[in-house]
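Loading example: each entry is read as two labelled lines plus one structure line.
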Amino acid sequence: MPLGRWSGIAHPELDEITVDDVLHALADPTRRAIIRLLQAEGDRPCGTFGLPVAASTLSHHFRALRKGGLIRQYDEGRQRMNTLRTAELEKRFPGLVDAVLANAG
Amino acid sequence: MPLGRWSGIAHPELDEITVDDVLHALADPTRRAIIRLLQAEGDRPCGTFGLPVAASTLSHHFRALRKGGLIRQYDEGRQRMNTLRTAELEKRFPGLVDAVLANAG
């Protein structure tokens, strides 16, 4: 997926992400469900997560995940796709995301 | 310190604490500074942390730490003391608090 595809969407650089951003992003079961589905099944469009929340709420959750450095979003045709940044984040905050996911129901 | 001393202060039972409560409690540098000082120097009264925040703000932070299961508070004479629950919390969420503190500035 070419970088240009997410040029119009705001993503923090790795060194701009704070631990508080990450904790905030992870402190919600819907957001953790999004991460888990991406881990299990790879990139997918926003509308296909099958979560029982309103579209506007989901949009808020994707924004929090983007701000926390957990995901990148890019447009593919008419769909907004989501891809994990957790490997990247692991370099900045080793063990953090895994420790949260391992402990969260 | 006898249990009776914190009978008037609300503390969640270990099994009532959610990972979201813990993440919320840890997602703030002032609250992490409180935890670090307790780890380094043991129980101490609320007014002695030397943090550059207003008393009302500090009171909010102590409440968030109590709700997240990070500390217990008890009264000793006219002072409200703080003691860590991190050993207890480690049983419920292994590695979580350490992973956050290790990654936070």
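Chain B touches chain A through 19 residues (CB under 8 Å).
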